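Hello,

Our lab assistant flagged a job as stuck in the queue for most of the afternoon. It eventually completed. Since we weren't sure the result was trustworthy after the delay, we are filing this so someone can double-check. Below is the sequence as submitted and the structure that was eventually returned. Let us know if re-running is recommended.
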Amino acid sequence: MLREYVESAATLYRMKLDYLLQCGDLVHEPVSPSSPSSGKKIIEVFGERLTLTNPEARFIYTPGRPLNIGFAIGNFLYQLSGRDDVDMLEYYNPLAMKFSDDGVRLHGAYGPRILHQMDRIIGMLTSSPGSRRAVVTVFDGRIDHIESKDVPCPVSMQVLVRDEHVVMLTSFRSQNLLMVFPYDIFLFTLLHEWIAVHLGLPMGVHIQFCGSLHIYEDEVAMARRIAQSLPLDIPMSSMTRPDGEEMEMVFYIEKQARYYGRGMTNELYSEIRARSLSPYWSGLVRILAAFAESKRRGESALRDPLVLAHAWDAP
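-- returned structure --
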């Protein structure tokens, strides 16, 4: 088990891929027939712990596996909005439909499961900072022990306030290290930061536990290339706490960006100029705008790391 404390997600990604390639076991036992990975063999280590000491260094860029920045940001807003429909998420990631059982909604969408719990633990830790009960559950045995294409991989998030910093411990039942981890660490460190800003405290370490950390057998060549590459660290601006009105603006502009990206309106930029957002949330909106422009050009992803690097430059 590799338990190094690493400052950036990009370095952690490369190190864990290298470790998995060296120490992972081939697993070929059958999985649930409804799983999208049914019939595939995996290279796996289990019971892994991954520790990120600077959760703001969440963005992972490697030439061999460049992140879709539009999806990374869109997914964060999708979860914060509490939605479970496929339509919004498919705009950011066309593969979303593959995980829907009925073509309409996603059984395992996190937002409807976690938002009310996050509000409660923020209140709990505000009144009792030393509490060890601030736990958000994602996987729900009452509804998730079923045959579905979309059973949540994350199990829980626990939040602790220690030394006046907000620490988060996440638990995953299963995680594809090569293809999914970069998006998961991006999302869950943003949720970590969301809780921290609502508590008025800085983030501490972000620790993730994995039941099954794996790659598929047919991904080994790509994993080797990335493990031997030099990752690029691109820091994000620090989140600021929005009030309810500002988040309503963000959600409204996100919707307008989707309409623009789908060619349903030409009013994206006038909508952005018409609304005053704080610098952090303006930066996220600029990324949504860049993604919408890429969609108008017929591209399904936005992978240019400079878009993220310059999102918070003064206009």
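-- support follow-up --
The delay was a queue issue, not a problem with the job. The result is valid. The longest strand covers residues 203-216. The chain has two domains: 5-66+99-233, 244-309.
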